[in-house]
From TrEMBL:
Keywords on record: Membrane, Transmembrane, Transmembrane helix
Coiled-coil residue spans: none
Superkingdom classification of source: Bacteria
Cleavable signal peptide: none
Gene Ontology cellular component annotations, sorted alphabetically: membrane
PANTHER family from the UniProt entry: METHYL ACCEPTING SENSORY TRANSDUCER WITH CACHE_2 SMALL MOLECULE BINDING DOMAIN, METHYL-ACCEPTING CHEMOTAXIS PROTEIN MCPB
Protein name: Methyl-accepting chemotaxis protein
UniProt domain HAMP: residue ranges: 205-258
Organism: Marinobacter nauticus
GO terms (BP aspect): signal transduction
CDD domains: HAMP
Transmembrane segments: 186-208
Amino acid sequence: MKKQYSIRFLLLAALAAAFTVILVFTVVYSAQSQRAHLEEYSHKYVDGLAKSFFDGLNTMMVTGTINNRDVLREKVMAPEDVLDVRVIRSDQLNAMYGAGNAAEQRREPLDMKALDGERVEHYSENDAGRVYTLIEPVIASENYQGVNCLGCHQAQEGDVLGAIRVDYSLAESDARLQQQLMVSGGIQILIFVVIFILTTVVLGRLVFSRLRRLHDRMDEISRNSDLSIELDVTRNDEIGSVSRAFNRMVAKIRASMHTVMDNAEQVEAAARTIAGKAETTEREVLAQKDNTDQVASATTEMAASAV
C-alpha cells in the first residue's frame, strides 16, 4: 500500500527543498563570482607588476645601471605572494649582450612559447596552492610601452627580444576566499533555518491549527449529532470561507430537520385525530349493534307471544 503523507509534511518538505535549491544555487554562484573577481584582480595586479618591472629595467638601461637589475628584481619580489619575477632572454639578445644573469638563463616550455611571441597565462599547483603565471613577450618596436627598442637593440620591427615572467601565488587569496565563502554560507544557512522556522510557525498558526480545530468541531458534530454547533470564523480567508460554507450547510440541514419534525408532529396529530374518530365510530357501531340485537330479541318475543 502506498504510504500517504500529510499535507503538513508535503508542504514543509516542498519549502525545505525550495530553500535548499536556492541556498545551493546562491552559494555556488557566489563562489564562482568571487573566484572570477579574484582572478581578474590577480591578472590586473600581475600585469601591472610585469609592466612596472619592465619600466624599471628600461630606466636602468637609459641611466646605465642595468647591471644592478637584481636589486630591482628583489624589490619586486618582496611581497610574499610574488614567487618569481625574471627576464627571459631571447637568442638574439644573448648574441648581442651575452647570456645575462643566472636567473635569466632558465628556460621552461612555457618560456619558449613566449619567445615565439605568444602571451602566456597559466595556472599551476604547488605545495601551498594555486600559482598564476604570466609571461609577456617583449616585441621590438619603435614604441613599446613608450620606449624605442629598435635604436638600442639593433633589431627589426616585430622581433622578440625576450619576455617578462611573473609567478604569483594565489594560495593566500584562495584561503581568504574560502574563509569568506564559509562565513557567507554559514550566514545563509542560518538565515535559511530562521526563515524556515518562521514559515513553519506561521503556517502552523494560520493553517494547520485552524484545520485541526475545523476537524475537531466537525468530529464533535458527528459524534453528538448536534447540528446546533457552528464553526468559529476568525479570518476572512480560504479556511474562513470553508467554515462559513459548512455553517451554511449545517444551517440548511438544521432547517430541513425542523421542517421534517414539524411535519412529523402534524402527521402525529392527524393520526391521533383519526384514531379518536375511529374509536368513536367503533363505539357507535357497537351501540348500534346492541340496539339491533335488542330489537331482534323483542321481535322474537312478540312473535312467540302471538303464537
